[in-house]
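Subject line: Sequence and fold of a protein, written as structure tokens
Area: Proteins and the way their chains fold up in space.
Start of record: The labelled sequence and token lines come straight after this line.
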Amino acid sequence: MAYKRWYDKHAELSQAVNAFLIFPDDVQSIIAEGALILAKREFSALEKENQFKSLGTEKVLALYKSKQKKRQYDANHAVHSAINHLSVLSLPEQLFMANQIITLADTVVEYMEFCKSLHRNATLSDIQSITDTHVEKGPKESKKFLMELKKTIIEKIESRHVPQSQLIKVNLEKMILQNNGD
């Protein structure tokens, strides 16, 4: 089977690249910047990108094409950079990064769905905090952070006067959190 893009050869890579695109532009940037920090720290991705001779023709061609900025994710500079960095890594490094991106995206989606269920806007500062925690401490800690963030949001809602329908949703979310915590 002929693949159109380098990342389509592996489902995890394709899923990671597409994970960026499900979010609004500002959220894409936060996640991509987190992925860049992680890739630079874990694999010296910047140095690899600068060593074109050793990359091989497929990766050099992909980097050349990326400079034309015709792909959907090229519109966002941070996502464009993150995917270029991802492209120069070895396959095991790419798969590691793909897993990190997918896990982080799943955590952000969970946060956004939680906010939506409470008719509350998700904030960029919360998404930045989730991303920072994931990058600095790992996926398990970002999930723990999200659980604490959910509890804090629920406590804030309970401390204000809110309509009965909102309290029912909060109580349901609270029960779900308690069941997930056990």
The CA atoms of residues 129 and 145 lie 9 Å apart. The chain has one domain: 22-181. Residues 22-181 form one domain. The first helix runs from residue 11 to 21.
